Amino acid sequence: MSPNESVILNRSNINDQGLYSLTCGSVAKLIQLNVIISSEKSVTEGEAAGFTFHYFTAGKLGRYRVERNKQLVFELDLTSGNTSQGSGFENRTSVAPHWRSDGDLTLTLQRVKPEDRGDYIVQVFKDNKREHVQAVRMRVSPTPNTEDRNPEQITFTPQPPCKEKTALICVSVAAVLLIAGAFYCGQKNPRICVSGGAADGGAGTELEMPPYTDTPVPVVNGHA
Hints:
Strand content: 25-35%
CATH topology of the domain at 36-141: Immunoglobulin-like
Radius of gyration: 46 Å
Strand order of the largest sheet: 3-11-10-5-6-7
CATH class of the domain at 36-141: Mainly Beta
Order of helices and strands: EEEEEEEEHEEEHEHE
Helix content: 10-25%
Number of strands: 13
């Protein structure tokens, strides 16, 4: 008992549930203690969450109700089978189709959103009294971020020089450059370097070539 005359029940379990009478002198007070079994659940955004709950439903009257932070999520009339869904949970909640014969009142919440996190109370009411209560604290994890990609960005991958299929292209390019270099050398210098010997493993050979001159146009009677 605490200093303010409150009775504290430590380490309570399911067997502590029941009706308690507190008497002080001539004053008696009745207190109904309900022990709630609680659990935790972690769900990734966009996935489905299931709140496991079983109850004796054969011929049973009452209402099956699920609340989040004291707001309606889902309610099922066990007599008529009519259902109600809370604001923000429309078309996302359901129970198994054979709940009446199987007693399986597990609630499925589809397409979980970040704002769905919170404390859920799953319970059955009969004659305005709670028959059975469970509590679930649900946490919602964000969807893993995917790497942002710019579709307009183009990345060029450098290719290895002269390998396999590209060898023929590389040889052709080298030949063109060699011919172009020889022509330029002939224009500027009568001495042209021929690299054939060097390519065969020997020293380069120099060939003496006459200077390049235009052939003069013969002059006849002073006219070209």
